[in-house]
């Protein structure tokens, strides 16, 4: 009983059963347990950042800009215009922070995923669990920010309630893609690319002024970017400007979620279950 | 009865390197099975494939009757794994490490908490329950890793060099605990570099080198088959060992020259020592001992176990 000759080559199979144990909850719970002892200043800053922007830009800059006229003909204050944009941006930032820096560290320095994947956890559980954590944080921020908007009278329509699930979807999309991208990065230098993509998206995606200020080709470029869809979706809901293009925005994020989860799961499997 | 682990032609390659080269073995339920081999032999790679965290390149593998490639989560839910290098969660406290790990198996929180307390006692870490993992000594981390592997009451416990880094007392405590698990019917699969550990714990073992199985059997079978009853160890001083060995040719069944000593395999060590003196050779030290797995290992791989 030593060696056999010419063993049959093996094909990788298994489908969902090899990838998912239906226990993403445990991964989420782990993150929450770890957060208990984490730096609360960082956690809170995620809430205050958009509030500061809103006050500085909405009221400071807004007193110069005055009111804006929407394509529908309605007039809204500048603060009410940028608030939903900032809400979408905070969802993006929260989701991206948790799914890039945190995940990168765990991938390369901690052996967390390696340990999790020696249990009955599958790579899809890890991806979903980590993303849910990013979502939960984004969701709490969004709820807080929406409350601030309500108090300041910036929610102009009943449909603002739907901004909560919308923001969660935005965060879900960014977190999925963020984690997928991160799982392919190897050095801290490459992580700078993430900032390099995010900052211009934040500045130009119609957060602070309507898209119509740009020439048409630039408009198309921005419309291809994910953040614009988030800003438009959330803004439509808080201002009460509902139209069918919202389905496109939602679809955009659903695609991001599916693509992001697929790549993340595949990559985690290649990294830790090969 | 079907074996809990069955490997046929199991192979793993990394690029050009064949880490595991078509090995066959079976482990029946309740057995304590050891993999012995020098550094780089392919032990950890084999353990990882059995643990369903590494896919095989070729061959067939069944763990608890299932194919690890297709049923990873299902198989892993019944395994306890102690990896060669600790991978505890540094962001969690000691007790939290156990509870959270249990949750990964989908075990209810209350059950995890109860087992965590039992396992902290098992690992003698009760007074460290609220410490951070990084505050533990190397040996304590090892004990915590082993405790963690038991949180799901596994059917198979996989231990990759479990006692490396433990002090002698902690090793004996651990052996005792492993023995009790074995009595309760847990299958043990372990790798080790310690011969005494292999002799103590393994019902059966395979000696692996360069990804192949060189020999297989119980510790006593292997010693009978690959070594004589006794060994005489002679030291002549490091630059004279080789010369002396040349003059001892023919005196023993087999002679092994190591950098620091010469080993003579024979059935009667004392008689051999007398003949050495008759030849006019005077080793600086000499000792006769019973053959051990170390000698089997040396014979099969040409290397000593601890390099
Ligand atoms: N992920 C990997 N990528 C490339 N080569 C690897 C990888 N893992 C292991 N190897 C190689 O496979 C061979 C077997 O390694 P393995 O870790 O299985 O040895 P081992 O018997 O456990 O050794 P040790 O006693 O030192 O732990 C080695 O040559 C090692 O370099
Ligand atoms: Mg090893």
Automatic annotation (TrEMBL), chain A:
One Pfam family it belongs to: ABC2_membrane
Cellular localisation: Cell membrane; Membrane
Listed InterPro entries: ABC2_TM (IPR013525), ABC2_TM_bact-type (IPR047817), ABC_2_transport (IPR000412), Nod_factor_ABC_transporter (IPR051784)
Domain ABC transmembrane type-2: 41-271
Superkingdom as given in the UniProt entry: Bacteria
GO cellular component, as recorded: ATP-binding cassette (ABC) transporter complex
Any Gene Ontology biological process: response to antibiotic
Segments crossing the lipid bilayer: 38-56, 76-96, 156-181, 193-211, 246-264
Molecular functions (GO terms): ABC-type transporter activity
Chief location: membrane
Membrane topology: Multi-pass membrane protein
Keyword set, alphabetical order: Antibiotic resistance, Cell membrane, Membrane, Transmembrane, Transmembrane helix, Transport
Family from the record: Belongs to the ABC-2 integral membrane protein family.
Protein name as it appears in the record: Transport permease protein
Native source species: Cellulomonas chitinilytica
Organism placement in taxonomy: Bacteria, Bacillati, Actinomycetota, Actinomycetes, Micrococcales
UniProtKB/TrEMBL annotation, chain B:
Localization (cell): Cell membrane
Domain ABC transporter, chain residue ranges per copy: 5-235
PROSITE patterns: ABC_TRANSPORTER_1 (PS00211), ABC_TRANSPORTER_2 (PS50893)
Topology of this chain in the membrane: Peripheral membrane protein
Chief location bin: membrane
Coiled-coil boundaries: none
The keyword Transmembrane is annotated on this UniProt entry: no
Gene Ontology molecular-function annotations: ATP binding; ATP hydrolysis activity
Family under the similarity heading: Belongs to the ABC transporter superfamily.
Stated name of the protein: ABC transporter
Source species of the chain: Cellulomonas chitinilytica
């Amino acid at each position: 009983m030593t060696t056999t000759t010419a063993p049959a080559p093996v094909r990788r199979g298994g489908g969902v059963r090899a990838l998912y144990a239906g226990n993403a909850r445990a991964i989420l719970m782990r993150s929450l347990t770890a957060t208990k002892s984490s730096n609360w200043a960082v956690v809170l800053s995620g809430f205050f950042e958009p509030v500061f922007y809103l006050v500085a830009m909405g009221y400071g800059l807004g007193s110069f800009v005055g009111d804006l006229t929407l394509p529908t003909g309605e007039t809204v204050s500048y603060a009410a215009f940028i608030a939903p944009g900032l809400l979408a941006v905070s969802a993006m930032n929260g989701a991206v922070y948790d799914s890039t820096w945190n995940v990168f560290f765990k991938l390369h320095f901690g052996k967390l995923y390696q340990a999790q994947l020696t249990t009955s956890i599958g790579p899809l559980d890890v991806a979903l669990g980590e993303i849910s954590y990013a979502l939960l944080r984004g969701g709490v921020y969004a709820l807080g920010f929406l409350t601030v908007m309500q108090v300041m009278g910036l929610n102009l329509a009943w449909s603002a309630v739907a901004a909560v699930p919308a923001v969660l979807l935005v965060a879900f999309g960014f977190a999925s893609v963020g984690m997928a991208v991160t799982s392919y990065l190897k050095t801290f230098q490459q992580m700078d690319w993430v900032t390099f993509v995010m900052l211009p998206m934040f500045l130009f995606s119609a957060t602070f002024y309507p898209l119509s200020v740009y020439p048409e080709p630039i408009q198309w470029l921005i419309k291809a970017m994910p953040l614009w869809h988030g800003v438009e979706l959330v803004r439509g809901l808080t201002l009460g400007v509902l139209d069918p293009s919202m389905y496109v925005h939602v679809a955009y994020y659903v695609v991001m979620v599916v693509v992001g989860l697929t790549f993340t799961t595949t990559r985690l499997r290649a990294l830790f279950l090969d | 009865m079907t074996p809990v682990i069955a490997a046929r032609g199991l192979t793993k390659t990394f690029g050009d390197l064949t880490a595991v080269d078509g090995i066959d073995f079976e482990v029946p339920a309740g057995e304590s099975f050891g993999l012995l081999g020098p550094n780089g032999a392919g032990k950890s790679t084999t353990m990882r494939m059995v643990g369903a965290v590494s896919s095989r390149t070729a061959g067939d593998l069944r763990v608890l009757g299932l194919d690890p490639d297709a049923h990873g989560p299902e198989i892993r839910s019944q395994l306890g794994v102690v990896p060669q290098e600790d991978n505890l969660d540094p962001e969690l406290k000691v007790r939290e490490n156990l509870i959270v790990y249990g949750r990964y198996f989908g075990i209810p929180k209350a059950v995890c908490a109860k087992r965590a307390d039992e396992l902290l006692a098992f690992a003698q870490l009760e007074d460290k329950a609220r410490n951070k993992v990084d505050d533990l000594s190397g040996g304590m981390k090892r004990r915590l890793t082993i405790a963690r592997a038991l949180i799901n009451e596994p059917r198979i416990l996989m231990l990759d060099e479990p006692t490396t880094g433990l002090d002698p007392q902690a090793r004996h405590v651990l052996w005792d605990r492993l023995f009790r698990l074995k009595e309760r019917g847990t299958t043990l699969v372990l790798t080790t570099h310690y011969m005494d550990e292999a002799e103590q714990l393994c019902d059966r073992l395979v000696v692996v080198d360069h990804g192949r199985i060189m020999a297989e059997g119980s510790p006593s079978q292997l010693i009978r088959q690959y070594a004589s009853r006794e060994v005489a160890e002679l030291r002549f001083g490091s630059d004279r060992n080789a010369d002396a060995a040349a003059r001892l040719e023919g005196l023993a069944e087999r002679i092994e020259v190591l950098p620091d000593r010469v080993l003579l395999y024979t059935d009667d060590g004392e008689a051999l020592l007398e003949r050495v003196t008759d030849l006019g050779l005077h080793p600086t030290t000499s000792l006769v001992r019973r053959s051990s797995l170390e000698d089997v290992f040396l014979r099969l791989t040409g290397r000593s176990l601890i390099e």
